[in-house]
Amino acid sequence: MKKIEIYTDGACSGNPGPGGWGAVLFYRDQRKELSGGEPHTTNQRMELKAVIEALKALKVKGWEVTVYSDSAYFVNAIKQDWLRNWQRNGWKNSRKEPVANQDLWQELIELMQLNQVLVEKVKGHAGDKWNERCDQLARQAIQSLS
Q1: 47 is catalytic
Q2: Residue 126 pLDDT > 90, yes or no?
Q3: Which residues lie across from 5 on neighbouring strands?
Q4: What secondary structure letter does DSSP report for 123?
Q5: Residue 70 appears among annotated catalytic residues
């Protein structure tokens, strides 16, 4: 099976406030960097947007895609079945409140179905070269908004 690795990160200046996201995609010896931002958003939305935009950039289906993220929000939602539980409970969390960022979660679900997506947690701001690069891209995207 062909494999792609993706590193992602999101950032916000104030929460909510101007936000940015960054992603670095790897296939063999090829590297592609993506970034973008929004003038008024949250850190969680930018973490999700980084993954979404990276998956949207893929022109393949049925490949193994490993997403590395420092976002406990994203990683736990996948690995601890929060996402599946939210869907089953009509997009309500364990406190019966509406799930935040439902629009992005639904888009993410559709994109994840196109490939075999694996999720791995990386420690943020701990020297991981590609996590640091994604953070840099996200912060540059914030600066470009002003």
Answers
A1: yes
A2: no
A3: 26, 66
A4: -
A5: yes
- Whether 10 sits among the annotated catalytic residues: the reply is yes
Q: Which amino acid is at 43?
A: N
Is 94 within 8 Å of 82 (Cβ atoms)? no
* Catalytic residue chosen out of the listed positions 20, 22, 37, 70: 70
Task: Name the architecture of domain 3-145.
Answer: 2-Layer Sandwich (3.30)
Q: What SS3 state is found at 27?
A: strand
Q: Is 29 a catalytic residue?
A: no
Rounded CA gap, 79 and 83, in Å? 9
Mean pLDDT, the chain, whole residue set: 96
Please state the pTM of the whole predicted model. 0.96
Tell me the helix, strand and coil percentages in the chain, rounded to 5. 40, 30, 30
Alpha carbon 137 to its chain's center: 13
Whether omega for the bond prior to residue 16 falls within 30 degrees of 0, making it cis, is yes
Tell me: the pLDDT tens digits for 95-110?
999 999 999 999 999 9
CA distances (Å), origin 123, targets 42, 48, 65? 20, 17, 19
β pairing state of 30-41 and 3-12: unpaired
Number of alpha carbons in the 13 Å side-chain half-sphere of residue 64: 5
Can 9 be counted among the known catalytic residues?
yes
